[in-house]
Amino acid sequence: MGSADEIFKEFKEHSVAEFFKKNRQMLGYSGKIRSLTTIVHEYVTNSLDACEEAGILPELEVVITQLGNDHYRVSVSDNGPGIPKKHIGNVFAKMLAGTKFHRFIQQRGQQGIGCTGCTMFAQITSGKPTHVVTSTGRGIVYEADIMIDVRRNQPSISNEKEYEQDFRGTKVTAEFKNVAFTRGEYGPGEYLRRTAVANPHAKIIFVDPDNQRFVYERAVSVLPARPTPGKPHPKGLDVDDLISYAIHSKERTIRTFLVKTFDRMSTSKAKEIETKSGLDFNRKPDSLKWEEAEKIIGAIEQTNFLAPSTKELKPIGEKQIREAIINVLEPEFYSIKTRAPATYRGGVPFVIEAALAYGGKAGRVINGGTRAEIMRFANRAPLLFDAGSCVITKVVNNIDWKRYNFKDVENTPLTVFVNMTSTYIPYTSAGKTAIADEEEVVKEISLALMECAREIKRYISAKHKKHERRNRKLTLVRYVPEIAHAIEDLTGKKKQEVELMLMHIINKKYGDVLLDGEEPEKEPEGGPEPKEPKPDEEEKPEGPEPEEEPEKQEGEEVLPKTPEGDEESDEVIEEED
Amino acid sequence: MEREKVMENLQGLGKEVLAELEAGRSPTIEIPVRTLSNIKFNEVKEQLELGSSVSKRNFMNVAHSRKFMQTLLVAAWINKDLLSKNLHTSLRDMYYALKRTIPGTKENTFEDQHTESDPIVVDLETALDVLREELHLNADVRGRVVGNVVIEDRGDTVDWSKLGSGGWSIPSNVEDIKFKEVDAKYILLIEKNAAFERLHEDKFWKHENCILITSQGQAARGVRRLANRLSIEHNVPLYVFTDCDAYGWYIYSVIKWGSMNLAHVSNKLGTSNARFLGLTMTDIEKYGLEGYTIKAKDMDIKRAKELLKYPWFKHEEWQKEIKIMIKKGYKAELEALSSKGLRFITNTYLPDKIGSKDFLP
User: Fold this and answer.
1) Looking at the domain assignment, is residue A492 inside a domain?
2) How far apart are CA A147 and CA A156, in angstroms?
3) Would you tell me how many other CB atoms lie within 10 Å of the CB of residue A269?
4) Which listed residue, of A26, A89, B72, B117, carries a Cα 20 to 30 Å from A132's Cα?
5) Quick one: pLDDT at residue A577?
6) What's the pLDDT score for residue A16?
7) Both B340 and B237 in a single domain?
8) Rounded to 5 degrees, what are φ and ψ at A488?
9) Rounded Cα–Cα distance for residues A421 and B153 (Å)
10) Which of B97, B118, B138 is where one domain is finished?
């Protein structure tokens, strides 16, 4: 299977149309449901990136309208910096070949072809151009229809308009056929809900085909720090990465290519690699063949490098996740953990952030019941598809939730949140829908989730304890009238007085638990309640003992189960009534 | 115990609870433990009795509070509706009288007679050291008696020698019976009704000047208490005559040493000077009854092995008897004696045994 990087290589040699048709599956355009979600993903990602890069707190509106069977219009508008007129074609109708290689930077999980893919897909399925309205906010608004001239492999722009209006941002509208909308976990609604969780600095409005409006308010008004570009660490490379970098390199020798391109790669390290690989490095890097690249990667594996710098990693942040979770899930309780940066494959830095949210709107409502859900993110971008092959799902399923008092975790109102931040996310396939099983990644996700689970466990058991105390009080209170009545019969003491005394005893231990219609009992000030001066030393512990710790029911009375209970076998029928 | 005294004790229970409440403590009720672990055999008194373990029923302990409530309900009801009105009733009646839904809940005060209200009565018997009959709760009526005895029962004078073929039916409560005349050399308590009928028809009690009682199976409390009072108050020896098997022997054991279920009242129900007359394994051999035995079932053997271990069956003679049974693997009914003729029991077996004092301890 080819990776996205190989796709790029191919792309250089083919037209957008050919490339798109050949690689639809990998670009996310497979299946009606997934295609629509991919379209939303591309536009939203583009908008968020544009806003962040320009230092603007994003505000997005996504509107999906049904026009017919499997026929929808998607419109996404943002308050971003707008697109200068001359770049419109590049953004919506051209592949920005090699983008990824300009910077070694953590990115949302773009499919590489981005918005151009949407333009192409709209054109293929509906035959209609993509309509763009944009302004950089200087009073001039630019509007145009964009298509791709398949023959010339160039943008084709028509219906251009320019007018004065006070507006800043971009609105893109396109029609698609052969797509389907779902409210399910693979649909745009869920995609945007999760995007909101991972991007609390964004306000996201979603209007679905039934004209239902979902608003995810901005939860934090600080933009996430921009990841700083850095060089890739050699330990994170695989063969086709190396070839891709090599092809784009302008260096004269492989040696200088290695030193200039990669982090922690000194001249002496490059020489060491040269010796170990047995290759001649005095050649142009783009002459590197696959087998030779394999040898270099092999040599890198046998060589020690300084650990990579983690400064380019910008996780979401605990405060941001907290605000987002409270905002979107309104949970009864939550726990958030950020692990320290770690590396996998010997050098790719990554950070795991995990959260558990319990109660409230956490979990997914399915057929009236609330089930647990897993929200997977790679560099803040929600991963909706291929859950089964994703390492996050696997780790969640491997956790023994019963240990954390989740007896039936699947039917618990629980949202499991995991975001992996990395300069290089190890996807399982070019579709970029699932994260691969890397040992270190598994370990970090497990540790983060288990820490969260421990906290939730403490909370839930405290909650259970409270519930239990309430039940106990209810039990005791229920018997008060009966007992008081019997005491009146036996002693002549007025029933009402006995009831008061019984309630007083109960509230000594359970005064904090208020039942319906009950008011907190006032401490009698020298009142009629005879205060006990000192507990009787002789007495065995009994009654409302000063124990506040877990209330085990002490020493269950040793009473026979039945009159003819367990002794029955020892005796012939004693008597019957 | 006098009715007033019993009432006082019941009310005392309520007063103790009230006192604890007034002191601001969680009220408790103490009930002697009646499990096997707290049942001891008193070698001196030759009686099963309760040990000193006491359990506390604590209102504030939710595992106890329901029982706590039930105990007080039963105590209050017996005090008010039975004793103060001098009425008697059965456990079943009491269960229905007390069963009701607790207002505002779906819970009943009592859900079941046998597991809930009956045990509370035994609790009170134990805690207050009274008989159930003294709480005016009667057990079933079973057992009959004939003999040269005149009694007074609820104002009626009854002569046990002038009751025709039926004899006097022994009530559950024999506490208030007054013995006006007792003329008997011994009491013969018979497990089987048929043997009683035989002896009664043969006027055995008249010739022998004895009191004949049939327990009709396991002896009911009335039978045990009556035998106990007659034997102790009038110094008449008590002989017990049962089938020759583990169950028959255990009937004897209950009459003599008391039972485990009612260990708290052994002193009133157990008659420790009772003697076992028959039927023994030795009798079977001696009277040539081997041909009329029944093969012992597994349960019979198991039960016999249990008897072997009871401290009150440790007498050598008993050990010997039980071991013979286990070895031979058969048992016999009283009726086996009829194989020697219907009146063999009247004319030969009993006079023989009693005359030679061929008893087991």
Assistant:
1) no
2) 5
3) 19
4) A26
5) 32
6) 66
7) yes
8) -60, -45
9) 97
10) B138
Q: Is A484 exposed, middle or buried (0-12, 13-18, 19+ CB in 10 A)?
A: buried
The residues facing A145 across adjacent strands are A131, A158
- Residue B18 structural domain: 3-138
Of A441, A460, A479, which residue is a domain's last? A460
Number of neighbours of residue B55 by Cβ within 10 angstroms: 21
Q: How many domains does chain B have?
A: 2
Grouped pLDDT means (10 residues each) for chain A, 577 residues: 44 61 79 93 90 92 96 96 85 58 45 76 93 91 90 84 91 95 92 93 96 93 78 78 81 90 88 90 87 89 79 86 91 92 84 94 84 92 91 94 87 93 84 89 95 90 86 92 95 94 92 75 45 38 38 40 33 31
Radius of gyration of chain A (CA): 33
**B96 is known as an active-site residue:** yes
Residue A224 lies in a domain: no
Neighboring chain B residues of A574 at a CB cutoff of 8 Å: 218, 254, 259, 261-262
Please give the mean pLDDT across all residues of chain B: 92
d(CA B27, CA A510): 16
Q: What is the pLDDT of residues B39-88, one digit of tens each?
A: 888 888 888 888 888 989 999 998 899 999 999 999 999 999 999 999 99
| Rounded distance between C-alpha atoms, residue B312 and residue B308, angstroms | 9
- Whether B296 and B245 have beta carbons less than 8 Å apart is answered as yes
Which of B25, B119, B260 is opposite residue A570, by nearest beta carbon?
B260
Q: Is A358 left (phi over 0), alpha (psi -120 to 50) or beta?
A: beta
Q: CA A481 to CA A366: how far, in whole Å?
A: 45
- In whole angstroms, give the CA distance from residue B103 to residue B109: 10
* ipTM summary value: 0.80
Structure confidence at residue A15 (pLDDT): 64
Using CB atoms, which residue from A487, A540, A553 is nearest to B62? A553
Cis amide prior to B279 (ω within 30 degrees): yes
* Residues 115-154 in B contacting A (C-alpha not used; CB under 8 Å): 115, 118-119, 122-123, 139-140
Instruction: Say which CATH number the domain at B98 has.
Output: 1.10.10.10
**Residue A488 in domain:** no
